[in-house]
Each structure stands twice: as C-alpha cells, then as structure tokens.
Design brief:
Blueprint lengths: L3 H10 L1 H21 L4 H19 L21 H13 L2 H6 L2 H21 L20 H16 L1 H21 L3 H18 L15 H13 L3 H8 L3
C-alpha cells in the first residue's frame, strides 16, 4: 500500500509532537463526553471521537493488521479503532431506533458472522497456527510481569500448538453458534469473558504496549459489544424517552 507510507512517515517524523497532540485531544474529548448530555455539543463530541477512532485504526493501527498475512482475533485483529468506531456509530443512533430497527439483533448477527470468520482464519491450515509459528499471535510487552505471563503461555504454544489452536478454534466456533442462535446467554458471556480475557492478556498485552491513540485493545471492546447485543435495551430507550 504505497499511499500508506507517506502517512506513516509523517507520523514517525515527529512522534513526541504527535503523541502530545493526541493525548491533549483525547483528554478534551473525554471531558466533553463525561460532561455533555444528549445535546448537540455531546453528539458533535461523540462524532469527533468516532472519526478519531477510525483515523487511529487506519494510520497507527495499520487497519488492525488484517493485511499482515496472519490476522488473528487473539492478537487484536481487526483492530481496536475499528471496534471503537463501530461503538461510536451505535451510540450516535437515536434511542428509539434501537427498538424499531432491532439494533441489538443486527449487532448480535454481525458478531456471529465476525466470530465465524475469525474461526475460519484460525483454522486455516496454511496460516501456520497449527505449528510452532502460533507463537506469532503473542504480544511483546515491556511490562515485566505481563512479559513473564505471556512467555509462559507462548512456551505452551510452541510445545503444544495443535492443542492450543484447537481450543481457540472451538471457543470461536461456540461463540459464533451461541450468538447466532441467541441461546444460553450466561454461557456465552462466561465463555466470551474467559476467551477475550485470555486473548487480551496473551495477544494484546493488556493494552500496556505503547501506541499512539487509544490503546484499549480489541478484546474488551468486543466483550462490550457482546454485552450490548445480549442485553435488554428497553430500559435504556424508556429512560431516554422519559428523562428524569
């Protein structure tokens, strides 16, 4: 992608300056989101935060590394910026549309498709995930305690790649099935919490790896979307229509 290199060069030429500007922008946006309610200023702030999330996904996060040749949901593909931008779009929707357009249902169906595709990528015999190359999904954390934890799990991956990758495939498949059938929400939440917590720790380093832009990582944002898709939004729409 030749068009991507000039943007990357611009970003890396003055990393300290860009990082300071990003921190200030995120701080101001965060204050606005906390203090503004359902008014024009709040919606403009949310729109700015959504656009910023998409920009972070394109430039610093390099499209969540989905074009890297070995994308995996464990190491954060398709990227936190993409998921944060999607959440921003959902929050920009009018509250009544959540009920009239069945937004949670559409979201749940979309998540089912996402985890099904993630399962296919993980099960791909040419991905290298069934061999010791599975170690490539693990993060390199600068935090000593997290680094030690990742090293232990990476050692297991090197010694037993078929077992570990098989467990990952099974977890992704079960989440896709449970989301598509909309059954056993407790089991879905427990399974997704355990799997995404593991992937957040091993593949994404708990978000402690230095990066430009919001570094919440994909795993916790995916779990937030699962919570939204399985939750009861009727109370939210009623409170929005009849604020106290």
């Amino acid at each position: 992608m030749a068009w991507y290199h000039p943007m990357l060069a611009l970003l890396t030429a003055r990393p300290i300056t860009w990082n300071i500007l990003v921190v200030i922008f995120q701080f101001l946006i965060g204050i606005m989101l906390l203090t503004e309610r359902e008014n024009i200023a709040g919606r403009i702030t949310l729109l700015m935060a959504t656009v910023f999330a998409w920009l972070v996904w394109v430039i610093p996060q390099a499209f969540g590394f989905i074009f890297s040749g070995q994308p995996s949901v464990v190491k954060g593909s398709p990227g936190a910026g993409l998921i944060a931008g999607l959440i921003g779009i959902l929050l920009l929707l009018p509250a009544q549309s959540w009920r009239s357009h069945n937004v949670p249902v559409r979201l749940r169906q979309g998540l089912a498709v996402f985890f099904a595709l993630a399962c296919l990528l993980q099960i791909n015999p040419w991905s290298g995930f069934w061999s010791s190359r599975l170690i490539q999904i693990f993060a390199h954390s600068p935090v000593p305690a997290v680094k030690t934890l990742i090293s232990l799990m990476a050692e297991f991956a090197v010694n037993y790649p078929v077992i570990l990758n098989g467990l990952i495939v099974i977890a992704l498949f079960l989440m896709a099935v449970l989301l598509s059938r909309n059954q056993f929400p407790t089991i879905l939440l427990l399974l997704s919490a355990l799997f995404l917590l593991w992937s957040w720790a091993s593949g994404q380093g708990f978000g402690l790896i230095p990066a430009i832009g919001a570094n919440a990582n994909t795993a916790p944002l995916l779990f937030l979307l699962i919570l939204i898709s399985t939750g009861d939004t009727s109370r939210m729409t009623k409170e929005s229509n009849h604020p106290s």
